[in-house]
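User: Let's play a game. I give you a shape written as tokens, and you guess the letters that built it. Ready? Here's round one.
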């Protein structure tokens, strides 16, 4: 991911309505509470990276947004309008707007149907296309994810590489023509070059289609590559949120590189621990000098 970093985007207009707004979300599995007062916004064309240690509630937050796990309290707004918390109560159009791409492209794709059929289903369901119009739309989607339909339309998922499978997952999400896509660890099963190709593709699609992303990741290099804003979760709560620049000071700063090289996994205590390790207690210039 070292060679790819999106340029800083201009600030969001103060009065802009977020595409997705989480307000004071609580959630539980059975009687066990797991999310506590989670609030953050995601604006049009922007990427919010959600980071935090394993079990901190990232995927649960995603399940709440998709309505698969209705929150026990709080509100979710889509374009400023309250979204029914249970997906079964959402309109087809509301369902269409929120799509998800999963970590394990393998298990997310039905191994018995072809790439063309996988992508056709949501196009038919959400857009009602059939026959030639359907085929044309599927071909267009395959061009968007940079897989030649002449070569891949009739392939089964088992005949694809990991990166290609992930591209099919992206096409299936795009088929709904959503505003917002949740990406849960979508590059963590891929090797670095392939992962970078997926990130570049997602960035290109975001610019072309004005998509908003919630990007769940453990990987700080990925955060640096694609995020506009960062939300840090710990034990079901948001412990920090802000612009990427605030998390990673100036781009290509030696300190950033140090963090990126020494912290493969996100641990909310990374900064404290790292500074302790280096015998410094703040992130001022003196500390940087000492680490250099
Ligand atoms: N289906 C489930 N049933 C019961 N508890 C669950 C379920 N899924 C997650 N949990 C619990 O909810 C909490 C939050 O888990 P979640 O999967 O949201 O974490 P995460 O941040 O996505 O972690 P990871 O980085 O490992 O994917 C954890 O304590 C977890 O054990
Ligand atoms: Mg998870």
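Assistant: Ready! My guess for every position:
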């Amino acid at each position: 991911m070292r060679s790819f970093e999106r340029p800083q985007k201009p600030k969001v207009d103060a009065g802009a309505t977020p595409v997705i707004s989480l307000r004071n979300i609580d959630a539980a599995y059975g009687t066990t509470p797991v999310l506590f007062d989670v609030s953050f916004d995601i604006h049009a064309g922007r990427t919010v990276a959600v980071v935090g240690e394993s079990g901190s509630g990232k995927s649960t937050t995603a399940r709440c947004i998709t309505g698969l796990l209705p929150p026990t309290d709080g509100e979710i707004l889509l374009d400023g309008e309250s979204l029914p918390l249970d997906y079964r109560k959402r309109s087809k159009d509301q369902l269409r707007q929120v799509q998800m791409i999963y970590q394990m492209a393998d298990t997310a794709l039905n191994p018995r149907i072809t790439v063309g059929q996988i992508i056709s289903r949501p196009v038919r369901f959400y857009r009602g296309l059939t026959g030639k119009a359907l085929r044309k739309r599927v071909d267009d989607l395959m061009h968007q994810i940079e897989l030649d339909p002449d070569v891949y339309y009739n392939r089964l998922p088992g005949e694809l590489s990991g990166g290609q499978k992930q591209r099919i997952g992206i096409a299936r999400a795009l088929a709904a023509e959503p505003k917002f896509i949740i990406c849960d660890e979508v590059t963590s099963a891929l090797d670095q070059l392939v992962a970078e190709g997926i990130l570049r593709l997602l960035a290109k699609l975001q610019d072309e289609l004005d998509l908003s992303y919630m990007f769940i990741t453990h990987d700080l290099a990925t955060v640096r590559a694609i995020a506009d804003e960062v939300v840090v979760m710990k034990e079901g709560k948001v412990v920090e949120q802000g612009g990427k620049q605030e998390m990673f000071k100036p781009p290509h700063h030696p300190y950033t590189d140090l963090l990126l090289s020494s912290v493969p996994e996100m641990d909310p205590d990374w900064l404290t621990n790292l500074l302790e390790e280096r015998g410094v207690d703040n992130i001022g210039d003196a500390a940087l000098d000492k680490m250099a």
